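A common beginner's mistake is to predict each chain separately and then try to dock the pieces by hand. The better habit, illustrated here, is to supply every component at once so that their relative placement is modeled jointly.
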Amino acid sequence: MGHTFPGAAAPFGMVQLSPETNQQEMFVDGQYNRDTYKYCSGYQYSDNTIFGFSHTHFSGTGHSDLGDFLIMPTTGVLNLEPGVADETASGYHSTFSHKNEYAEPGYYSVLLNESKIKAELTASERVGFHSYTFSKSDTAHIILDLMSNIYNYDDKNVWTFVRVENDSLVTGYRQTSGWARTRTVYFAMQFSKAFSKYGHKKYDKVDYNGFYRRFNETENFPEMAGKNIRAYFDFDVEENEKVKIKFALSSVSTEGALKNLDAEIPHWDFNKVKKQTQEKWNRELSKIEIVSQSPEDKVIFYTALYHTMLSPIIYEDVDGNYRGLDQNIHQSDGFINYTIFSLWDTFRALHPLFNLIQPGRNVDMIKSMLAHHDQSVHNMLPIWSHYSNENWCMIGYHSVSVIADAIAKGNTNFDINHALDACKNTSTNIYFDGLDYYMCIDFIPEDVSSNSVSKTLEFSYDDWCISRIANGAKKYDVLTEYEKRSQNFVNLFNESSGFMQPKLSTGSWKPNFDPLNTHGQGFIEGNAWTYSLFVPHEIDKMIEMMGGKNQFSERLDSLFTMQLDDKYIAHNEDITRDGIIGNYVHGNEPGHHIPYLYNWTGHDWKTQERVRMIMETMYGNKADGLCGNDDAGQMSAWYVFSALGFYPVCPGSGKYAIGSPLVKNATVNLENGKSFQIKTKNQSQENVYISKIILNGKELKRNYILHSEIVRGGEIIFNMTNKPI
Amino acid sequence: MGHTFPGAAAPFGMVQLSPETNQQEMFVDGQYNRDTYKYCSGYQYSDNTIFGFSHTHFSGTGHSDLGDFLIMPTTGVLNLEPGVADETASGYHSTFSHKNEYAEPGYYSVLLNESKIKAELTASERVGFHSYTFSKSDTAHIILDLMSNIYNYDDKNVWTFVRVENDSLVTGYRQTSGWARTRTVYFAMQFSKAFSKYGHKKYDKVDYNGFYRRFNETENFPEMAGKNIRAYFDFDVEENEKVKIKFALSSVSTEGALKNLDAEIPHWDFNKVKKQTQEKWNRELSKIEIVSQSPEDKVIFYTALYHTMLSPIIYEDVDGNYRGLDQNIHQSDGFINYTIFSLWDTFRALHPLFNLIQPGRNVDMIKSMLAHHDQSVHNMLPIWSHYSNENWCMIGYHSVSVIADAIAKGNTNFDINHALDACKNTSTNIYFDGLDYYMCIDFIPEDVSSNSVSKTLEFSYDDWCISRIANGAKKYDVLTEYEKRSQNFVNLFNESSGFMQPKLSTGSWKPNFDPLNTHGQGFIEGNAWTYSLFVPHEIDKMIEMMGGKNQFSERLDSLFTMQLDDKYIAHNEDITRDGIIGNYVHGNEPGHHIPYLYNWTGHDWKTQERVRMIMETMYGNKADGLCGNDDAGQMSAWYVFSALGFYPVCPGSGKYAIGSPLVKNATVNLENGKSFQIKTKNQSQENVYISKIILNGKELKRNYILHSEIVRGGEIIFNMTNKPI
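With all components supplied together, the output reads:
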């Protein structure tokens, strides 16, 4: 359930060309019959069928969408039905075996068992490149299934428009209303070889085009339109002949897709594209060079690092045009526009990681967020946005954390005053998630807006971020205002229980409180045990409130060791046994900072022990190597930081809490041309504790390191030992 | 059934702001229940209800679409249901009385009985301007019904997107699949006064946006999207307070609509817009100044002239951007882009009229057709196109006639070689309407493509037009080729019956021929009696084939005087008793040239008598003043020419056949600054015959006049008499 995909993508590329391993009949007896959650990224390793290769996939999300433009090569009698996975001849899908499947960054290949077609995929940023090696056949087909979707509810397809421009070029678009409510993706599809014949079948219930009666629209008629269309293109192929397809995407127009196609891949050399994309991956992945304790650790590390660079994705044409949130076409001015902002997840460690190894891209992402704000009819920064849509998923307004963290780290090549205005607008929207109450009575009542404790805590932290941005902008009245708001977390702390708890609008605590239950207790995707610890900007104060350092350290011990009853895990897609240690949930985000909190109790060794244990048990070099959704790279970013020995507990602070490095040595190659060396002494699987830290030749007498110390370049040496210090 | 509308429009404007007089429940017992044909233009004089005012209407078509963005002002309890016409309180509609209704070019007003709201409408080219005068109310509403449509089949709405930008500005778009299969219209709606509250109701069967659950989307939430939406905006109003709305359209984007709004109406002065638009109308209508025999004739003449300037419509934003046939955004380069080309109708007299009084616009229309061709995946000129779509209505490829006529008349400010290429591409498309057979065996077999005789005859004429264009381009091989094709009409003439008749692909005549039946006999919207006479480019040859001048003259007499059995009229929407004289159908197009054919038989007086009789009986100054659909201005253009005394029997020839002027005198004010005077002597209702014609002081000894003679300026004097000459 990591929800990653094995297909081909360039770093941060708009195209994620990857197989769909199942596509059951959408409706059985009038009921929707597909496990949407399971197929968030289209691929499940346990499946043995492939239904085709589509061009857009989320990486690691817990909600689904995309899956655009499924292509499937077949031979024999044309069958436009996908069919049912269990029945081999029921449709165009094929069985496959993992032994015939191969994936590396920017490349994927598989042998389709029935047709013996070898499928190979690579991609540039905006263009997917398919190569299908056929056996000799005079009935070879390339199916373009425009009905196939991820999040495939009935009627997700809003409209489809296809033009067969000539005997080897097809353009068009598809408009969907799925998780993104109003979404259009344009394409240009270029074949390496002229098709001999083409056609389509329309599955619409109503067809208005009476005047098309004079044509046989279904065969060799070059304009297709409707809600539900499957097209095919026929070829004669020789033994081992490759039919190649370049498939470009655009959010703007088919004209834009054609520009992208011509600019990025103006030739038919599949291996050249593969090589170029892999060079890009090597450049990105070598931003951190490690020497690991074991070969397996190295694979896990670089797999994680790879997963941090699959989204946000570039979301503009080669000429800088993109579709904005207002559905108008905009031109990015001095930046590259990005989309897919899963911010409740990624503010924690992914964007901080970008500030370290992708500062240029992170600034562009911030500029993309500001453009989103400027185009937003709500005057808000993104909450969870993708493809010119705000889907409002999860809580908080964590764009502000991304901005604050960039400022704290000197990554400020954007208009800070503009950013501060956007943050203020976002945090004062009176119809968003109980903010009206929050601003009026300093907390959100549960009877007004559910998950009120989670919201109040996250707003408090976000408001602290805004105060930091105000500080950067030298707007001290705003700073004061938001520092005050940042203290709102105290209003939901119940001294008598020791937990953050939901209040009602009357001001009294909501009765029947269960601190282990994740449902109905004022929290979202977490319980009071976990969520009460989310005060990253006031950790000392939180610890004081909760009884002081010793009591807090014991509280963390309890969290990691208590037995959690099954009833608290059932009905939680995002919380499964795989990702749980006691009552700590590593498989989901709200607790990701918790293992590092021992650092504030004087028991740093417990953090060191715990993070090493989590790295060893919650990440693996297997199909189920993640203990929960990768969540657009957040789970992987946690690993990357932790493996290097430090973690951004409070994004916006410019500080990293020191954990325990898993690597032997590492070099962080910075964009400023400098490098930061991470070295260990006496590193081993048992030596998880740190006895001494030397930063640039001087002992570091604290348990955190500053971002500014890293980007100055230099080296840090961790002396490791097998005994807690 | 003229299918004109009484609302406000600027000459050739994109906005036609006009009332919808009925909008019954779309479905009764699961069955579609609206008379689409009857409501082609949204308005029927016999109705006494108004459902609102929408912004787009065809003028005079026999098929329907459009009806975008219906606005209705109401007071009292909000009711978003349109309701049923017969039940007063069943919905937001209102009764009205014709005595409280007033219409003139560019202005329409009506009193809504129930609410006592006075509605006034005017329009610039791209912006509709509403003014609603209320009685005092604290429950005044402006309803924006985005579900209301003309051609209102279930599911015509594909998608709707609305943003409430601030308390008085709303933007959005609606995408429909009606007659135009893939159509989007964008809008910007500016209120003169801030609304106090707004909201919408969504009528979709499925709503995907689970994540919107945290909002009450239905009230004061500024983004609305779905297939079926009705929005409302609430106001408090004082007695006699006017709430005004400027409503701009664009085919490009909401940004484009806003540009149009700001450029065309940057103020709130309703009367100023009305005045400016009426000045434009006066400028256009005074291109022909007449002195009529009776005041009523004058009204009829200028009503007809008005109807010739409602379409084609300007179809680009003020900055020249427009959505092309390929759905990409294009910039018009050196021309204004037009749409709504009902060419099977309008090639006959409307475009020839444009060559006379709107030569500049006609060239832009030709450039628009060429752009259509360049954007067409079929490489074809428009057949019947509107709003970035080809709807393939009716037959022939009469764009070529429009081009040939412009060339013949020296109106050649376009690339003739490009035009010739476009004509060749259009006329050689092998999947269009039997053209493959036509090119191979010189006629279209009825068993291959129905209406084969009509198609063969019209293709023959069109091919003659292409030969004329080739002549203009000095491409003499093409000229020869198409002159040969232009003779194909002979292949379907059956000497034994004297009629054009359908052949089968075997080469034999299709059996059971009925020359009076309009169905199944090889013709479309006409029978063999009428359609056999469609050889406008080879009239002498046709007459020879049909037995010579005398026999042909008698044949025409029979046509005009025979009794047509009711069975031949039933089931013909476009052919009704109102428009029939004997077996001649003036209410539909295929015969419009026929009254003038006597001129080729030596019996010119019969033409003179007949056209005067048609003008007197088939046109009137009443709600039912047209004898059939105005057909985008063709019916009216016939009248305008005929009233002046001449008619373009063969567009592309540069000649006008002389009929009998109805006017006393007329001045045609030409764009070249010259004017052409039409004068009569002894003109009266009885004196329908011409005894002598003096052109610029010299007797004209022929029964036609050349376009070149008119545009040189000067005067023609018709001496009238009551006796046939």
